[in-house]
Amino acid sequence: MKWLSRSLGFKKLAIYLLLIFFALLFLLPTFIAVNTAFKPQNEVWKVTSFPSRFYLGNFKEGLSKIGRGLINSALIAFPAMLISTFVGSLAAYPLSQFKFKGDTVVYFLLLAGMYVPYQTVLIPLFFIIKRLGLYDTIPGLWLVHTAYGIPFTTLILRNFFATIPGELMEAAALDGCSMMSYYWKILLPVGSSGIATTLILQFRAIWNEFLFALTLTQSTKTIPVTVYLQSFVSRTEVQWGSLMAAALITIIPTIVVFLIFKKHFVKGLTGVYK
Amino acid sequence: MKFSVSFRQDKTFSTVLFLTIPLLLFTVFFLYPIGYTLYLSFHEWDGISPTMDSVGFKNYFDIFKSPHFRTALLNNGKWLIFYLLFPPGLGLSLALLVNKGVKGESIFETIFFLPNAMTLIAVACIWRWLYTPGYGLFNEVLRGIGLPGWTQNWLGNPQIATYSVMIAVLWAEVGVFFIVYFAGLRNVPQALIDASKIDGASSLKSFRYIIWPMLAPSTVIVIAFSTIGAIKIFDLIYTLTRGGPAYFTSVLALFMYEVSFNRFQMGRGAAVGVILFLLAALIIGPYLIYSMRKVEDIRQ
To answer: Which CATH fold would you assign to the domain B67-294?
Structure first.
């Protein structure tokens, strides 16, 4: 049986080598970006070499170009993730807890809503937002992210709330608990892990969003960081060092959130399509 | 479950109360705009003038005659094929490898998913740098290994630009496919695979006849991701090539944006929006019906 164990060992080794190969391949683009971002101007073109010294000028320059965008994105993303998760939880409550007339219609609409191409709604959306006086405003983007987040936030929270045992509601009803207080006092606290997952995924989605931002903002005090970054890369003369630094600064918030809350990402991304 | 009369009344009242805001928003931001886009697609309008002219199907005819539209539609087809084959294929392969009981499983998971946490605009910045003709990584490596003839203008050559963008998308999005398949593999009992091995099944056979069928729910999710990805693709192309050179890398979403918000032909833009909607309905429709049937009744 010795040959068998040896061949098993060989197989394991091959798996590890393959995985490490892929892992390195996956890390390579990010590594090149980091490597470039720390290089002084005159070394940037030597893409395969390391920086001769630890140069921070690119980050300074990058930050000066997109800094305002970072602030705008934070002002957009934090309230929008809270509001959109809250509104999703409102619809998820009845959808997860009891039958009602038209429940399958509501469920179908929300599910279909996840797949509507945004280009189909973009022109009317532009004029709705203008008419509401919310064009080029941060609250306008709160509203838009809340509205277009509804299918995702509702369905994911519905799946989370559905795991709360029905006996809890029965017991609460016997104790004279109203539907309203059941939502505030039991559903939200018991479903808090689902709420956290939804908040995290909404933060990522809103921070990373581009199309609505591109269409609905135009001034420096509202444009989020994705659009700043995009206008930076689209120039013909690109400063690669400071561009890489700006790109890295832009992704830090979502990367940090992902590294801290990895379990929530996995649970959320596989949980919404139950 | 038996609830008192007052509780049931409370239930009806609360259901209406809780659904009001979400459904109102859904109506204003989904249903109404879809209807309005359809209406607009039969009109000519510059977005400013107070009146619009009814033109019947003219916008649709004009679009179908436009070479830009046909190229974009063809590219969406290419994207569909790409999305159905490569991200799921690579995602599944990586999931199978990590699932072999390797150490540091969580590290690999993090590495493969990491690009997925980034905004696609940053992804585009990084890949534009890698693809830079003069001294970007790809050409530099090709020169380094003695293949200077293989260097390319990766994003500027119309023959290959779309495929270059696809590689960037593969890197950026494979993580989610990996995670879905990885979670699916967790549900395949190891005992079943071991038993098949004892019965003499090769790895390939146990994959084909045990693992793959048990991954069907994951595959359904993956197909939904893929098809919608192919229809919605926009951010990376907009930032990497803006549809260029000329319109060779354009897709319908980009064509729609340009026509509506750069050329202010709202009617035509709306017509493209309608076509996108119909394509989405055609491709996603079967998945929706499948999901609706499968929805387990989880409520009382």
So the answer is: MetI-like fold (1.10.3720)
